[in-house]
């Protein structure tokens, strides 16, 4: 009888062990499946935030995302440094600090063209230039700019709000000189 009881207890223990093994295996499978779902969700969120150049494998896409994030971090660092320089008002490059800003105002019957050429470290607020033009009776139509050879070229095209009155180019030129100098 004792032998039979032991066998029954052993059998029960084995059945419990099998149940616990199978339930732990099921739990592991569920955990792994949830982990995969979470990883796929996070990857799709990452790829939606990063511009993808072409269809490629997940590893290549993660590599592209990593390099994109690194470039963005470098750009942010440079912009913060530039912001500090602007806020301090201290420019290390003395030559560029004293480099004159060139302002050219041309007028025709229906347009006014303002060209401003400055150094990279000579800052002015474009909205203030636009405000001067609006105050003088101009409506800004187009603005272009580009960097070349350490200089920034701004060109602002505008037209008079009241064509009969027109725009006094000499006054605009003087006000812009005062603003930017």
TrEMBL record:
MF terms (GO), sorted A to Z: DNA-binding transcription factor activity, RNA polymerase II-specific; protein dimerization activity; RNA polymerase II transcription regulatory region sequence-specific DNA binding
BHLH domain ranges (all copies): 23-72
GO cellular component: a single term: RNA polymerase II transcription regulator complex
InterPro entries attached to this UniProt entry: bHLH_dom (IPR011598), HLH_DNA-bd_sf (IPR036638), MASH1/Ascl1a-like (IPR015660)
Major subcellular site: nucleus
Keywords on record: Nucleus, Transcription, Transcription regulation
Signal peptide interval: none
Domain of life: Eukaryota
Record Gene3D superfamilies: Helix-loop-helix DNA-binding domain
Renumbered residue ranges of the record's region Disordered: 1-27
Pfam families xrefs: HLH
SUPFAM superfamilies (UniProt xref): HLH, helix-loop-helix DNA-binding domain
Chain intervals with Low complexity compositional bias: 6-27
Cell compartments where the protein resides: Nucleus
PANTHER family in alphabetical order: ACHAETE-SCUTE TRANSCRIPTION FACTOR-RELATED (PTHR13935), BHLH DOMAIN-CONTAINING PROTEIN (PTHR13935:SF118)
Name of the protein in its database record: BHLH domain-containing protein
């Amino acid at each position: 009888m004792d032998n039979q009881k032991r066998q029954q207890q052993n059998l029960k223990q084995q059945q419990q062990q099998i149940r616990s093994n199978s339930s732990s295996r099921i739990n592991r499978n569920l955990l792994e499946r949830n982990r995969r779902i979470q990883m796929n969700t996070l990857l799709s969120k990452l790829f939606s935030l990063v511009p993808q150049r072409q269809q490629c494998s997940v590893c290549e896409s993660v590599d592209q995302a990593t390099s994109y994030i690194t470039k963005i971090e470098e750009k942010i660092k440079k912009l913060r440094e530039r912001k500090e320089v602007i806020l301090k008002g201290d420019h290390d490059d003395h030559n560029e600090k004293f480099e004159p800003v060139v302002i050219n105002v041309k007028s025709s019957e229906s347009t006014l063209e303002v060209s401003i050429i400055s150094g990279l470290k000579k800052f002015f607020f474009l909205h203030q230039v636009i405000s001067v033009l609006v105050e003088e009776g101009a409506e800004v139509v187009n603005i272009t700019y580009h960097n070349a050879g350490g200089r920034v070229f701004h060109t602002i095209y505008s037209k008079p709000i009241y064509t009969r009155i027109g725009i006094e180019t000499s006054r605009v030129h003087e006000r812009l000189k005062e603003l930017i100098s």
